[in-house]
């Protein structure tokens, strides 16, 4: 389930295995890989929900052009997780609409 070659970021160079937190639960991923890649490898397919219809969204373009992968990362909303590198101890939350998790 891990993406090995990203269309924009190129070939994945695995960093060290680190712990990060998704909706309060500890998960593991490789440092410097895109956050969305680490989540997908952990079986997380829904990254946000739309504001109006509450529809689930996951990875769509995987190159930072759409907003389907935006999440709240370390308290900052609307972070494109498909192109944002994972850092040890990072806090990632499902995003609801255009702001922070409620």
Overall description:
The chain is mostly beta strands. Strand 7 and strand 8 form a beta hairpin. It starts with a strand and ends in a 6-residue tail after the last strand.
How are the elements arranged and paired?
Elements: E1 5-6, E2 10-11, E3 17-22, E4 25-30, H1 35-41, E5 48-49, E6 56-57, E7 70-73, E8 76-80, E9 91-93, E10 95-96
Parallel strand pairs: 3-9, 5-10
Antiparallel strand pairs: 1-2, 3-4, 5-6, 7-8, 7-9
Keywords:
102 residues, five-stranded mixed β-sheet, three-stranded mixed β-sheet
What is the average per-residue confidence, as pLDDT, rounded to a whole number? 88
Tell me the total number of β-strands. Answer: 10
Cα-atom radius of gyration? 13 Å
Distance between the termini: 29 Å
Sheet with the most strands, sense and barrel status: 5 strands, mixed
- Helix percent reads under 10%
Low-confidence stretches: none
Task: Report strand %.
Answer: 25-35%
Task: List the strand order in the largest sheet.
Answer: 4-3-9-7-8
Helix/strand/pairing class, anyone?
Answer: mainly beta
**Approximate shape:** globular
Order of helices and strands: EEEEHEEEEEE
- DSSP summary: helix tally: 1
Would you summarize the structure shown here?
This protein has one helix at residues 35-41, and strands at residues 5-6, 10-11, 17-22, 25-30, 48-49, 56-57, 70-73, 76-80, 91-93, 95-96. The chain is mainly beta and 102 residues long.
């Amino acid at each position: 389930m891990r993406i090995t070659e990203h269309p924009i970021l190129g070939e994945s160079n695995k960093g060290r295995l680190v712990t990060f937190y998704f909706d309060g639960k500890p998960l593991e991923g490789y440092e410097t890989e895109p956050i969305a890649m680490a989540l997908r490898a952990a079986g997380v397919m829904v990254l946000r929900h739309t504001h109006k219809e509450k529809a689930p969204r996951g990875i769509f373009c995987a190159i930072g052009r759409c907003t389907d992968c935006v999440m709240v990362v370390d308290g900052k909303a609307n972070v494109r997780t498909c192109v944002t590198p994972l850092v040890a101890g990072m806090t990632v939350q499902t995003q609801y609409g255009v702001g922070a998790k409620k």
